[in-house]
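Hey L., structure's done. Input below.
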Amino acid sequence: MTGAATRARVPATSALRAIQAPVSERLEDVVAEMRRVVTADLPLIEQVSGHLLQMQGKMFRPTLALLASETTESPQPRVVTLAAAVELMHLASLVHDDSVDHSALRRGLPTVNSLFSHQVSVIMGDFLYSRALEALVAMEDLDLLRVLTSVSTQLTIGEMRQLAAVDALSFDEADYDALIQAKTASLLSAACETGAMCGAAPHRLALKRYGERLGMAFQVADDILDYTETASVTGKPSGLDLREHKVTLPLIAALPRLSAKDRQRIDALFAADAPGDDQIAEAIALVTDAGGIASAQIRGEQFAHEAEEALDGLPDTPARTALAGAIIYVMHRRS
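Output:
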């Protein structure tokens, strides 16, 4: 990496606050708009919606949309509704993911499927998508609607692509790129592109490219964390992806370099319905020793560098500085 992404690391929470500083007041408006959009005259929906909004994450995607809207000029007020719709789409994808994966916790709180039921989870995810699209339709901008409805399709295709893999260990780098493009990068790209359409429209394509490359870097960094970041209870890497038989870039990079004996150990892990902690720890060590994590880091840095390059033509504004800071945050976050 060169430029902004090579500067000294700062704590992730401090970095995120600095990124959000130029749009902090409007982020509060986005949260209020999300509540308005999902309001429904049905107690169960209100109950589930309230729980989901308690699970509100870092608001990274709305932050990108707001920043993209003011890279050159004053943003249009409608960007708040746009940012709310983007975050609701993200939330819907998480609700569906948790149901598919039978996850019990999300951000330290019970998932919808564990607190209510898988049926409620699936239907609530659909509700969030439909409410988000209703809010976008009300904006009466067909071009903007076209971008985000395309993302909705890509998110679904990405999930199906993962479920359709018959032999997980045959999943290669091209498959991985297509998956993370659909499941992660598409929404970050759309957040930046549509944000630009609510303000800095001349830089729409540059910001679309920035968001797409940032999203690819984001997912690679996230997948590396699963191999490197220690769980709070065990003090060891969680290896959750390995437990769920998900093949990500560190393993893809390591597989061709493993000996026949070590490859058999990986095969045994993926053949086990419930891999044990020792199997997970061994697999993480094998991937690390084979250079899988280092290779994935190089690839993630390349994506981050391409995101940085996409910002080259933008004027020197606080929003542009914050977008550059988002690259550092993505590459060095710890959760």
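Confidence is low (pLDDT under 50) at residues 1-9. The longest helix spans residues 173-197.

-- N.
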